[in-house]
Description:
By secondary structure, the chain is α/β, with parallel strands linked by helices. Helix content is 59%, strand content 7%.
Amino acid sequence: MLPRVAPRRDVFPLMVAAAVLAVVALYFAPLGSVPPGPYLDEASIGYNAWTIAHFGVDQYGNHVPLFFVDFGDYKGPLATYLTVPFAWFWGTTLGAVRAVSVLAGIAVALVAGALAHRLTRSRVVALIALVFTALQPWVFLQSHTTMEGNVLLVLCVMLACWFVAEAIARQHAQRWWSAAGIALGAAVYAYSLGRLLTLLLAIAIVATCHRFGRQAMLRFLFPIGVAYVVLLAAALANPPVLFARASVVSIFSDHPALLTAIGRFFANYLSYFNPSFLVISGDGNLRQTTGFGGVIVAATLPLMIAGLVRLAMRRREPYSRFVVLGLLLSPIPAALTLVAPHALRGAGLFVFLTVLMIEGLGWAREVIGARRAPALALVTLVALSASPYFVDFFTAYPARAATAFDAGEAQAMQVAHQHAQAGDHWLFLSTSLDQPAIQLMWIESAPPPQDSFLSRARVTVISTRAQLDAARPGDVLVLGPRDVPPAGSRLLFVLRGASIVWGSTGAASSDQLHVYVD
Protein backbone atom coordinates (compact mmCIF):
# COMPACT_ATOMS: atom_id res chain seq x y z
CA MET A 1 0.00 0.00 0.00
CA LEU A 2 1.40 3.40 -1.03
CA PRO A 3 2.00 5.93 1.78
CA ARG A 4 -0.54 8.71 2.00
CA VAL A 5 0.74 12.01 0.64
CA ALA A 6 -0.26 15.07 2.65
CA PRO A 7 -2.07 17.70 0.57
CA ARG A 8 0.12 20.62 -0.45
CA ARG A 9 -0.59 23.69 1.63
CA ASP A 10 -1.53 26.86 -0.21
CA VAL A 11 0.87 29.51 1.09
CA PHE A 12 -0.51 32.27 -1.11
CA PRO A 13 -2.89 33.67 1.55
CA LEU A 14 0.13 34.00 3.86
CA MET A 15 2.00 35.87 1.12
CA VAL A 16 -0.94 38.26 0.72
CA ALA A 17 -1.17 38.80 4.47
CA ALA A 18 2.58 39.48 4.66
CA ALA A 19 2.42 41.95 1.78
CA VAL A 20 -0.54 43.81 3.28
CA LEU A 21 1.12 43.98 6.69
CA ALA A 22 4.31 45.31 5.07
CA VAL A 23 2.34 48.00 3.23
CA VAL A 24 0.49 48.97 6.42
CA ALA A 25 3.78 49.18 8.33
CA LEU A 26 5.40 51.26 5.59
CA TYR A 27 2.48 53.68 5.42
CA PHE A 28 1.91 54.07 9.16
CA ALA A 29 5.57 54.19 10.24
CA PRO A 30 6.02 57.96 9.80
CA LEU A 31 2.43 58.97 10.59
CA GLY A 32 2.41 62.44 12.09
CA SER A 33 6.11 63.16 11.60
CA VAL A 34 7.11 62.73 7.95
CA PRO A 35 6.56 65.03 6.16
CA PRO A 36 6.81 67.70 8.87
CA GLY A 37 3.94 70.04 9.48
CA PRO A 38 1.23 70.97 9.80
CA TYR A 39 0.88 72.82 6.52
CA LEU A 40 -1.91 75.41 6.65
CA ASP A 41 -4.37 73.19 4.71
CA GLU A 42 -3.76 70.38 7.18
CA ALA A 43 -4.25 72.71 10.13
CA SER A 44 -7.52 73.89 8.58
CA ILE A 45 -8.89 70.39 7.91
CA GLY A 46 -7.72 69.09 11.28
CA TYR A 47 -9.14 72.01 13.20
CA ASN A 48 -12.50 71.97 11.41
CA ALA A 49 -12.79 68.21 11.97
CA TRP A 50 -12.07 68.79 15.67
CA THR A 51 -14.66 71.58 15.98
CA ILE A 52 -17.27 69.45 14.18
CA ALA A 53 -16.48 66.56 16.53
CA HIS A 54 -16.77 68.61 19.71
CA PHE A 55 -19.04 71.56 18.86
CA GLY A 56 -20.92 70.61 15.67
CA VAL A 57 -19.68 73.78 13.91
CA ASP A 58 -16.76 74.80 11.71
CA GLN A 59 -14.13 77.39 12.60
CA TYR A 60 -16.53 80.23 11.78
CA GLY A 61 -19.45 78.81 13.76
CA ASN A 62 -21.40 77.36 10.80
CA HIS A 63 -23.37 74.26 11.82
CA VAL A 64 -22.35 71.07 9.97
CA PRO A 65 -21.62 72.79 6.61
CA LEU A 66 -21.55 70.93 3.30
CA PHE A 67 -18.44 72.85 2.20
CA PHE A 68 -15.81 74.38 4.45
CA VAL A 69 -14.80 78.01 3.90
CA ASP A 70 -11.04 78.01 3.71
CA PHE A 71 -8.80 80.93 2.70
CA GLY A 72 -11.17 82.19 0.02
CA ASP A 73 -11.90 78.65 -1.15
CA TYR A 74 -14.53 76.03 -0.33
CA LYS A 75 -13.00 72.66 0.52
CA GLY A 76 -14.88 69.47 -0.27
CA PRO A 77 -16.39 67.84 2.82
CA LEU A 78 -15.15 64.27 2.44
CA ALA A 79 -11.69 64.67 4.00
CA THR A 80 -12.91 66.81 6.88
CA TYR A 81 -15.86 64.65 7.88
CA LEU A 82 -13.86 61.43 7.59
CA THR A 83 -11.26 63.00 9.89
CA VAL A 84 -13.89 63.76 12.57
CA PRO A 85 -13.62 60.39 14.41
CA PHE A 86 -9.82 60.65 14.52
CA ALA A 87 -9.98 64.25 15.73
CA TRP A 88 -12.43 63.14 18.44
CA PHE A 89 -9.97 60.60 19.83
CA TRP A 90 -6.58 62.15 18.98
CA GLY A 91 -7.45 65.85 19.06
CA THR A 92 -5.57 68.40 16.98
CA THR A 93 -2.56 66.29 16.08
CA LEU A 94 -0.86 65.54 12.79
CA GLY A 95 -1.66 61.87 13.26
CA ALA A 96 -5.37 62.65 13.42
CA VAL A 97 -5.21 64.89 10.34
CA ARG A 98 -3.31 62.38 8.22
CA ALA A 99 -4.88 59.10 9.34
CA VAL A 100 -7.64 59.21 6.70
CA SER A 101 -5.13 59.88 3.91
CA VAL A 102 -2.90 57.01 5.02
CA LEU A 103 -5.84 54.61 5.17
CA ALA A 104 -7.01 55.83 1.75
CA GLY A 105 -3.56 55.23 0.29
CA ILE A 106 -3.52 51.67 1.61
CA ALA A 107 -7.02 51.17 0.23
CA VAL A 108 -5.86 52.40 -3.21
CA ALA A 109 -3.25 49.62 -3.26
CA LEU A 110 -5.78 47.00 -2.14
CA VAL A 111 -8.29 48.07 -4.78
CA ALA A 112 -5.55 47.97 -7.42
CA GLY A 113 -4.90 44.37 -6.40
CA ALA A 114 -8.61 43.53 -6.64
CA LEU A 115 -8.82 45.17 -10.07
CA ALA A 116 -5.74 43.27 -11.23
CA HIS A 117 -7.32 39.99 -10.19
CA ARG A 118 -10.50 40.84 -12.10
CA LEU A 119 -8.62 41.84 -15.26
CA THR A 120 -6.02 39.04 -15.32
CA ARG A 121 -7.61 36.30 -13.15
CA SER A 122 -4.14 35.79 -11.67
CA ARG A 123 -3.53 35.86 -7.92
CA VAL A 124 0.18 36.50 -8.47
CA VAL A 125 -0.46 39.50 -10.72
CA ALA A 126 -2.96 40.84 -8.17
CA LEU A 127 -0.38 40.60 -5.38
CA ILE A 128 2.35 42.23 -7.46
CA ALA A 129 -0.03 45.01 -8.55
CA LEU A 130 -0.93 45.69 -4.91
CA VAL A 131 2.74 46.04 -3.94
CA PHE A 132 3.76 48.07 -7.01
CA THR A 133 0.87 50.50 -6.47
CA ALA A 134 1.79 50.98 -2.81
CA LEU A 135 5.36 51.81 -3.83
CA GLN A 136 4.38 54.56 -6.26
CA PRO A 137 5.58 57.99 -5.00
CA TRP A 138 2.41 59.63 -6.35
CA VAL A 139 0.13 57.76 -3.98
CA PHE A 140 2.63 57.36 -1.13
CA LEU A 141 3.38 61.05 -0.58
CA GLN A 142 -0.24 62.13 -1.07
CA SER A 143 -1.21 59.53 1.51
CA HIS A 144 1.03 61.24 4.04
CA THR A 145 -0.42 64.72 3.68
CA THR A 146 -3.96 66.07 3.80
CA MET A 147 -4.14 69.10 1.52
CA GLU A 148 -7.78 68.43 0.72
CA GLY A 149 -9.00 65.08 -0.54
CA ASN A 150 -6.74 64.32 -3.48
CA VAL A 151 -5.88 60.79 -2.36
CA LEU A 152 -9.58 60.22 -1.63
CA LEU A 153 -10.25 61.26 -5.22
CA VAL A 154 -7.73 58.65 -6.38
CA LEU A 155 -9.50 56.05 -4.26
CA CYS A 156 -12.94 56.98 -5.62
CA VAL A 157 -11.80 56.76 -9.25
CA MET A 158 -9.88 53.53 -8.61
CA LEU A 159 -13.00 52.02 -7.07
CA ALA A 160 -15.05 53.14 -10.07
CA CYS A 161 -12.56 51.44 -12.44
CA TRP A 162 -12.79 48.22 -10.45
CA PHE A 163 -16.58 48.30 -10.24
CA VAL A 164 -16.92 48.94 -13.98
CA ALA A 165 -14.63 45.98 -14.68
CA GLU A 166 -16.81 43.80 -12.41
CA ALA A 167 -19.99 45.09 -14.05
CA ILE A 168 -18.70 44.22 -17.51
CA ALA A 169 -17.54 40.77 -16.42
CA ARG A 170 -20.79 40.04 -14.53
CA GLN A 171 -23.28 41.34 -17.05
CA HIS A 172 -26.34 40.44 -14.99
CA ALA A 173 -25.07 41.88 -11.69
CA GLN A 174 -26.49 45.41 -12.02
CA ARG A 175 -25.37 46.42 -8.53
CA TRP A 176 -21.82 46.92 -9.80
CA TRP A 177 -23.02 49.75 -12.05
CA SER A 178 -24.64 51.40 -9.04
CA ALA A 179 -21.43 50.97 -7.06
CA ALA A 180 -19.42 52.62 -9.84
CA GLY A 181 -21.83 55.54 -9.88
CA ILE A 182 -21.64 55.96 -6.10
CA ALA A 183 -17.83 55.96 -6.24
CA LEU A 184 -17.75 58.69 -8.90
CA GLY A 185 -20.49 60.62 -7.12
CA ALA A 186 -18.31 60.65 -3.99
CA ALA A 187 -15.41 61.99 -6.08
CA VAL A 188 -17.42 65.20 -6.59
CA TYR A 189 -16.99 65.91 -2.86
CA ALA A 190 -13.49 64.52 -2.41
CA TYR A 191 -11.49 67.19 -4.24
CA SER A 192 -12.53 70.32 -6.10
CA LEU A 193 -11.21 69.08 -9.46
CA GLY A 194 -13.32 65.96 -9.00
CA ARG A 195 -16.38 67.99 -9.95
CA LEU A 196 -15.24 68.14 -13.58
CA LEU A 197 -13.32 64.85 -13.58
CA THR A 198 -16.42 62.92 -12.53
CA LEU A 199 -18.41 64.39 -15.41
CA LEU A 200 -15.70 63.51 -17.94
CA LEU A 201 -15.33 59.94 -16.67
CA ALA A 202 -19.10 59.44 -16.57
CA ILE A 203 -19.21 60.46 -20.24
CA ALA A 204 -16.37 58.03 -20.99
CA ILE A 205 -18.14 55.13 -19.29
CA VAL A 206 -21.47 55.78 -21.01
CA ALA A 207 -19.76 56.20 -24.39
CA THR A 208 -17.90 52.89 -24.10
CA CYS A 209 -20.36 50.77 -22.11
CA HIS A 210 -23.80 51.87 -23.33
CA ARG A 211 -24.35 48.51 -25.03
CA PHE A 212 -24.90 46.95 -21.59
CA GLY A 213 -28.35 48.46 -21.60
CA ARG A 214 -30.37 51.46 -20.51
CA GLN A 215 -31.05 50.07 -17.06
CA ALA A 216 -27.34 49.59 -16.38
CA MET A 217 -26.53 53.13 -17.46
CA LEU A 218 -29.39 54.60 -15.43
CA ARG A 219 -28.22 52.75 -12.34
CA PHE A 220 -24.73 54.09 -12.98
CA LEU A 221 -25.80 57.68 -13.61
CA PHE A 222 -28.38 58.02 -10.82
CA PRO A 223 -25.97 58.50 -7.86
CA ILE A 224 -23.81 60.82 -9.98
CA GLY A 225 -26.90 62.86 -10.83
CA VAL A 226 -27.80 63.11 -7.14
CA ALA A 227 -24.28 64.33 -6.34
CA TYR A 228 -24.52 67.06 -8.97
CA VAL A 229 -28.02 68.11 -7.92
CA VAL A 230 -26.81 68.64 -4.35
CA LEU A 231 -23.78 70.53 -5.66
CA LEU A 232 -25.99 72.72 -7.86
CA ALA A 233 -28.29 73.49 -4.93
CA ALA A 234 -25.29 74.51 -2.83
CA ALA A 235 -23.97 76.68 -5.66
CA LEU A 236 -27.32 78.41 -6.17
CA ALA A 237 -27.45 79.20 -2.47
CA ASN A 238 -23.82 80.35 -2.44
CA PRO A 239 -22.23 80.81 -5.92
CA PRO A 240 -18.62 81.06 -4.64
CA VAL A 241 -18.80 77.35 -3.78
CA LEU A 242 -18.19 76.62 -7.45
CA PHE A 243 -16.30 79.64 -8.68
CA ALA A 244 -14.18 81.10 -5.86
CA ARG A 245 -11.17 78.87 -6.41
CA ALA A 246 -11.51 78.66 -10.18
CA SER A 247 -11.45 82.44 -10.47
CA VAL A 248 -7.94 82.39 -8.95
CA VAL A 249 -6.25 79.28 -10.36
CA SER A 250 -7.79 78.72 -13.82
CA ILE A 251 -6.02 79.52 -17.06
CA PHE A 252 -8.71 82.17 -17.64
CA SER A 253 -8.16 83.96 -14.31
CA ASP A 254 -6.15 86.81 -15.85
CA HIS A 255 -8.58 87.17 -18.82
CA PRO A 256 -6.15 86.06 -21.56
CA ALA A 257 -6.84 86.12 -25.27
CA LEU A 258 -8.51 82.95 -26.54
CA LEU A 259 -5.43 81.72 -28.40
CA THR A 260 -3.31 82.31 -25.30
CA ALA A 261 -5.70 80.28 -23.17
CA ILE A 262 -5.74 77.46 -25.74
CA GLY A 263 -1.94 77.45 -25.85
CA ARG A 264 -1.78 77.29 -22.07
CA PHE A 265 -4.21 74.39 -21.98
CA PHE A 266 -2.32 72.19 -24.44
CA ALA A 267 1.06 72.99 -22.86
CA ASN A 268 -0.34 72.11 -19.45
CA TYR A 269 -2.02 68.97 -20.74
CA LEU A 270 1.16 67.61 -22.34
CA SER A 271 3.21 68.37 -19.21
CA TYR A 272 1.40 65.58 -17.35
CA PHE A 273 2.83 63.03 -19.78
CA ASN A 274 6.33 64.54 -19.66
CA PRO A 275 8.95 61.99 -18.51
CA SER A 276 10.53 64.70 -16.37
CA PHE A 277 7.35 64.95 -14.31
CA LEU A 278 6.60 61.23 -14.31
CA VAL A 279 9.97 59.70 -13.44
CA ILE A 280 12.71 62.34 -13.04
CA SER A 281 11.86 65.39 -10.92
CA GLY A 282 8.11 65.64 -10.26
CA ASP A 283 6.46 69.06 -10.19
CA GLY A 284 9.06 70.99 -8.15
CA ASN A 285 6.76 71.65 -5.18
CA LEU A 286 8.16 69.91 -2.09
CA ARG A 287 4.68 69.54 -0.62
CA GLN A 288 3.58 67.49 -3.62
CA THR A 289 6.73 65.72 -4.81
CA THR A 290 9.87 65.17 -2.76
CA GLY A 291 12.41 66.53 -5.24
CA PHE A 292 13.95 63.06 -5.48
CA GLY A 293 12.61 61.29 -8.55
CA GLY A 294 9.23 61.68 -10.19
CA VAL A 295 5.71 60.62 -9.31
CA ILE A 296 5.95 57.00 -10.45
CA VAL A 297 8.60 54.32 -10.00
CA ALA A 298 10.75 54.47 -13.12
CA ALA A 299 10.88 50.68 -13.50
CA THR A 300 7.07 50.52 -13.82
CA LEU A 301 6.93 52.91 -16.79
CA PRO A 302 7.74 50.15 -19.34
CA LEU A 303 4.87 48.12 -17.87
CA MET A 304 2.53 51.06 -18.41
CA ILE A 305 3.66 51.45 -22.01
CA ALA A 306 3.20 47.72 -22.58
CA GLY A 307 -0.23 47.95 -21.01
CA LEU A 308 -1.22 50.76 -23.37
CA VAL A 309 -0.12 48.68 -26.36
CA ARG A 310 -2.08 45.72 -25.00
CA LEU A 311 -5.23 47.82 -24.64
CA ALA A 312 -4.80 49.17 -28.17
CA MET A 313 -4.68 45.60 -29.46
CA ARG A 314 -7.95 44.90 -27.63
CA ARG A 315 -9.56 48.17 -28.62
CA ARG A 316 -12.86 46.54 -29.50
CA GLU A 317 -13.43 45.64 -25.84
CA PRO A 318 -15.48 48.18 -23.84
CA TYR A 319 -13.13 48.23 -20.88
CA SER A 320 -10.08 48.80 -23.05
CA ARG A 321 -11.77 51.76 -24.73
CA PHE A 322 -12.85 53.16 -21.35
CA VAL A 323 -9.32 53.02 -19.90
CA VAL A 324 -7.75 54.70 -22.93
CA LEU A 325 -10.45 57.37 -22.96
CA GLY A 326 -10.03 57.87 -19.21
CA LEU A 327 -6.29 58.21 -19.69
CA LEU A 328 -6.85 60.98 -22.25
CA LEU A 329 -9.59 62.80 -20.31
CA SER A 330 -8.22 62.67 -16.76
CA PRO A 331 -5.57 65.43 -17.15
CA ILE A 332 -8.12 67.92 -18.55
CA PRO A 333 -9.29 69.41 -15.20
CA ALA A 334 -5.68 69.90 -14.10
CA ALA A 335 -4.69 71.38 -17.48
CA LEU A 336 -7.34 74.08 -17.02
CA THR A 337 -5.38 75.54 -14.09
CA LEU A 338 -2.41 77.87 -14.32
CA VAL A 339 0.25 75.77 -12.60
CA ALA A 340 1.23 72.59 -14.42
CA PRO A 341 2.24 69.93 -13.93
CA HIS A 342 0.69 69.84 -10.46
CA ALA A 343 0.83 66.48 -8.70
CA LEU A 344 -2.27 67.04 -6.55
CA ARG A 345 -4.49 68.29 -9.36
CA GLY A 346 -3.30 65.59 -11.75
CA ALA A 347 -4.09 62.78 -9.31
CA GLY A 348 -6.85 61.38 -11.54
CA LEU A 349 -4.27 60.45 -14.17
CA PHE A 350 -2.46 58.19 -11.69
CA VAL A 351 -5.44 55.82 -11.59
CA PHE A 352 -5.31 55.14 -15.32
CA LEU A 353 -1.53 54.80 -15.30
CA THR A 354 -2.05 52.16 -12.61
CA VAL A 355 -4.55 50.32 -14.81
CA LEU A 356 -2.00 50.44 -17.64
CA MET A 357 0.59 48.98 -15.25
CA ILE A 358 -1.82 46.17 -14.38
CA GLU A 359 -2.38 45.44 -18.06
CA GLY A 360 1.39 45.45 -18.53
CA LEU A 361 1.73 42.93 -15.70
CA GLY A 362 -0.91 40.80 -17.42
CA TRP A 363 1.15 40.87 -20.61
CA ALA A 364 4.30 39.98 -18.65
CA ARG A 365 2.50 37.00 -17.11
CA GLU A 366 1.54 35.75 -20.57
CA VAL A 367 5.16 36.02 -21.69
CA ILE A 368 6.75 34.63 -18.53
CA GLY A 369 4.14 31.97 -17.83
CA ALA A 370 4.66 30.01 -14.62
CA ARG A 371 8.42 30.61 -14.45
CA ARG A 372 9.35 32.09 -11.11
CA ALA A 373 12.80 33.49 -11.88
CA PRO A 374 11.66 36.20 -14.35
CA ALA A 375 8.79 37.21 -12.05
CA LEU A 376 11.16 37.48 -9.10
CA ALA A 377 13.58 39.50 -11.23
CA LEU A 378 10.78 41.94 -12.16
CA VAL A 379 9.76 42.41 -8.53
CA THR A 380 13.39 42.89 -7.51
CA LEU A 381 13.96 45.45 -10.26
CA VAL A 382 10.95 47.54 -9.18
CA ALA A 383 11.93 47.28 -5.51
CA LEU A 384 15.47 48.43 -6.28
CA SER A 385 14.11 51.26 -8.43
CA ALA A 386 11.83 52.44 -5.61
CA SER A 387 14.28 52.03 -2.73
CA PRO A 388 16.28 55.28 -3.18
CA TYR A 389 13.04 57.26 -3.07
CA PHE A 390 12.00 55.77 0.26
CA VAL A 391 15.49 56.12 1.77
CA ASP A 392 15.43 59.81 0.86
CA PHE A 393 11.83 60.18 2.07
CA PHE A 394 12.65 59.02 5.59
CA THR A 395 16.08 60.67 5.87
CA ALA A 396 16.79 63.83 3.87
CA TYR A 397 13.31 64.86 2.75
CA PRO A 398 11.87 65.99 6.12
CA ALA A 399 14.59 68.63 6.58
CA ARG A 400 14.45 69.63 2.93
CA ALA A 401 10.68 70.14 3.07
CA ALA A 402 10.45 71.77 6.51
CA THR A 403 9.90 75.30 5.21
CA ALA A 404 7.48 74.14 2.50
CA PHE A 405 5.30 72.54 5.19
CA ASP A 406 5.54 75.47 7.64
CA ALA A 407 7.17 73.02 10.04
CA GLY A 408 7.26 74.32 13.59
CA GLU A 409 5.28 77.49 12.89
CA ALA A 410 2.22 76.43 14.88
CA GLN A 411 4.38 75.36 17.81
CA ALA A 412 6.39 78.62 17.68
CA MET A 413 3.17 80.68 17.64
CA GLN A 414 1.96 78.76 20.67
CA VAL A 415 5.19 79.58 22.55
CA ALA A 416 4.85 83.24 21.53
CA HIS A 417 1.21 83.28 22.68
CA GLN A 418 2.14 81.81 26.05
CA HIS A 419 4.80 84.51 26.43
CA ALA A 420 2.26 87.22 25.61
CA GLN A 421 -0.34 85.79 27.99
CA ALA A 422 2.17 85.59 30.83
CA GLY A 423 2.51 89.37 30.69
CA ASP A 424 -1.16 90.01 29.85
CA HIS A 425 -0.19 91.41 26.45
CA TRP A 426 -1.45 91.06 22.89
CA LEU A 427 -0.06 88.67 20.30
CA PHE A 428 0.34 90.11 16.78
CA LEU A 429 0.46 87.61 13.86
CA SER A 430 1.63 88.81 10.46
CA THR A 431 -0.31 87.70 7.38
CA SER A 432 3.05 87.23 5.62
CA LEU A 433 3.14 83.88 7.48
CA ASP A 434 0.21 82.59 5.38
CA GLN A 435 -2.93 82.07 7.47
CA PRO A 436 -1.31 82.12 10.93
CA ALA A 437 -4.61 82.26 12.85
CA ILE A 438 -5.73 78.77 11.84
CA GLN A 439 -2.36 77.31 12.82
CA LEU A 440 -2.56 78.87 16.28
CA MET A 441 -6.15 77.72 16.76
CA TRP A 442 -5.19 74.20 15.67
CA ILE A 443 -2.21 73.87 18.01
CA GLU A 444 -4.15 75.31 20.96
CA SER A 445 -7.38 73.38 20.31
CA ALA A 446 -9.17 76.72 20.58
CA PRO A 447 -12.98 76.70 20.78
CA PRO A 448 -14.75 78.25 17.78
CA PRO A 449 -15.73 80.63 16.29
CA GLN A 450 -12.47 82.17 15.12
CA ASP A 451 -13.29 85.84 15.77
CA SER A 452 -14.39 85.14 19.34
CA PHE A 453 -11.23 83.17 20.09
CA LEU A 454 -8.93 85.86 18.70
CA SER A 455 -10.68 88.50 20.76
CA ARG A 456 -10.70 86.46 23.98
CA ALA A 457 -7.11 85.31 23.56
CA ARG A 458 -5.88 88.85 22.77
CA VAL A 459 -4.61 87.86 19.33
CA THR A 460 -4.74 90.11 16.27
CA VAL A 461 -3.79 89.34 12.68
CA ILE A 462 -2.02 92.24 10.99
CA SER A 463 -1.59 93.00 7.32
CA THR A 464 -0.50 96.66 7.27
CA ARG A 465 2.36 98.69 8.71
CA ALA A 466 -0.07 100.86 10.66
CA GLN A 467 -1.43 97.78 12.46
CA LEU A 468 2.08 96.67 13.32
CA ASP A 469 3.02 100.10 14.65
CA ALA A 470 -0.05 100.00 16.91
CA ALA A 471 1.68 97.38 19.08
CA ARG A 472 2.36 98.58 22.61
CA PRO A 473 5.36 97.84 24.85
CA GLY A 474 5.27 94.22 26.00
CA ASP A 475 3.20 92.94 23.06
CA VAL A 476 4.62 89.94 21.20
CA LEU A 477 5.02 90.15 17.42
CA VAL A 478 5.25 87.06 15.19
CA LEU A 479 6.61 88.26 11.85
CA GLY A 480 7.75 86.82 8.56
CA PRO A 481 11.42 86.93 7.55
CA ARG A 482 10.95 90.11 5.49
CA ASP A 483 8.71 92.02 7.91
CA VAL A 484 10.42 94.96 9.58
CA PRO A 485 9.73 95.13 13.33
CA PRO A 486 8.97 98.45 15.07
CA ALA A 487 11.94 100.43 16.31
CA GLY A 488 13.02 99.45 19.80
CA SER A 489 11.54 95.94 19.74
CA ARG A 490 13.65 93.02 20.99
CA LEU A 491 14.11 89.77 19.12
CA LEU A 492 12.89 86.91 21.31
CA PHE A 493 13.52 83.91 19.06
CA VAL A 494 13.72 82.80 15.43
CA LEU A 495 12.28 79.66 13.84
CA ARG A 496 14.80 78.04 11.53
CA GLY A 497 13.39 74.99 9.81
CA ALA A 498 11.48 73.37 12.66
CA SER A 499 13.85 74.53 15.42
CA ILE A 500 13.40 77.53 17.68
CA VAL A 501 16.61 79.53 18.16
CA TRP A 502 16.38 81.74 21.24
CA GLY A 503 18.10 85.07 21.75
CA SER A 504 19.28 85.49 18.16
CA THR A 505 20.65 88.84 17.16
CA GLY A 506 19.98 88.44 13.48
CA ALA A 507 18.44 86.04 11.02
CA ALA A 508 18.69 85.20 7.34
CA SER A 509 15.78 86.00 5.05
CA SER A 510 15.06 82.28 4.63
CA ASP A 511 14.04 81.89 8.29
CA GLN A 512 10.38 81.04 8.67
CA LEU A 513 9.41 83.56 11.35
CA HIS A 514 10.80 86.03 13.87
CA VAL A 515 9.24 86.65 17.26
CA TYR A 516 9.79 90.05 18.86
CA VAL A 517 8.81 91.68 22.12
CA ASP A 518 7.87 95.31 21.52
